[in-house]
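Repro:
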Amino acid sequence: MRQIDVAVIGGGPGGSTVATMLARKGWRVAIFERERFPREHIGESLLPASMPVLEELGVLPAIEEAGFLHKWGATMIWGASPEPWSWYFRETNRDYPHTYQVWRARFDQILLDNARAHGVDVHEEHRVLEVTFDDGRATGLSFVNEATGETGAVSARFVVDASGQTGLLGRALKLRRTDDYFRNLAVYAYFDGGERLPAPDENNLLIEAYPNGWVWVIPLHNGWASVGAVVDSAFGQQEIARLGLEPFLREQFAQAPRTAAMLRDTTVASGPHVIRDWSYASRQLVGDGYILVGDAGCFIDPLFSSGVHLALLSGVLASAYITTALRHPEMQEPAAKVYEQLYLKQYSHFREMARLFYSSNRTTESYFWEIRRMLEAEDDLTPREAFVRAVAGQPPQGYERAVLDHGEAPAEFVEAVRLAEEDRLRRRQRLDALLPPSQPPAPAFFDAIPHLAAGAVLEERPVIGEGEFVMSHVLTTTAHPEGAPLSPFVARVVALIDGRRTVAALLAALAEGLPPESAAKAVPHAVSAIRILYSDGAIAELAGR
């Protein structure tokens, strides 16, 4: 039996990414993909957060050459007003003011070809039959060549399940848990012709809420548009059985005025298709000898086009985890925990934002929207916890503020935001008083006593490094439950904060034993560290004596 280092199930964005990154590290990697590329796939709209990963993979020139439309933002008919509104990536992301509306058949082919170019052994039309286990550890897989009917097997040190919503390994191990809040269903197709939004939004994704749910229109570079409707799962199955797929889809569009106008005089070029099992998460993403990547591990309602991003991100993280586990077995268990924390942090962010958007929509009244507002009210999270999950510790995505500006968010959530913003303002004012810009610190700063936030914990554990996990000092707080890596110097500053020392005493303790020149340099660095820790909420208070 052939022996390799890593066997990857699936050649989509997650599988291609993890395979490419592992091959760069010198591992013997093989992809087993059940289809022949190019193949059709939903999920055309990319996010700015994916651009650094695509840049790291080296595929941005090929993506640009493919001629995909530049996506500058999104337009929504959602919230409190029936009028459309837009948000733009440039408002929050200067490095990547646009992404792409991709044709997934070509986009996924680019990523898979890139894996080949990096030495990955790619087997298309090879359907994985099962993952083999020995004493509880994944040790390889068996497959069938769909073109010839021949079967085979490989032995591997690690198995990556990147099989998408099929979730071959997750289903076999019964790891998947459905998300009751997003018990939805989607029907989608590709339409030829039709209109685009008026300039400057002609390349934008359009999302329009309507009584039964919401619909999307994504313009594509070939003149087609990806269009779909997201509805309650029970309602959708009942109506599809009564009407059939295309009449059902047309009926949904007819209830969304702007979408209907854009799709007037169009023809169906491909589809329709239906997707069930809409939102889910796995109770475990890493096991002995295996790891789940992308949709194989988690999938959330597509409101924010997060699928490709989560696949790319988890592919990078999974590669780092596998390299770490193979090179440093003693780090395998703690690195697995960090992989799950980092992946689920992003997943939770999109979940909470989607949940907030659903509960804040008032453009239409119906059972679909009312039941989702009721589910929001029954959620176990406190408003503060929901706010933290939704926005705290996250890079700006552009729609966090939009939901408050255009929707009618739950009153408790709005209050949590107000309190957080008041706290932020109070901290900024306190800092300006103690550390005036471009001036020496005020005497009161040195007399102040810093207190760490409740629940703040300083520990040493794995963090993502150059293609693998490395041990580092990490500070866990409410805003950063997954932990924020610290330099040894900043970790030393945090370790000295005990709620009794003044800043002056802390600086003196830092300088102890250092040559005068080094001690003098340490002071401004420590002041900067205290400023950042206080701004970020890791230091709860700078109290006077």
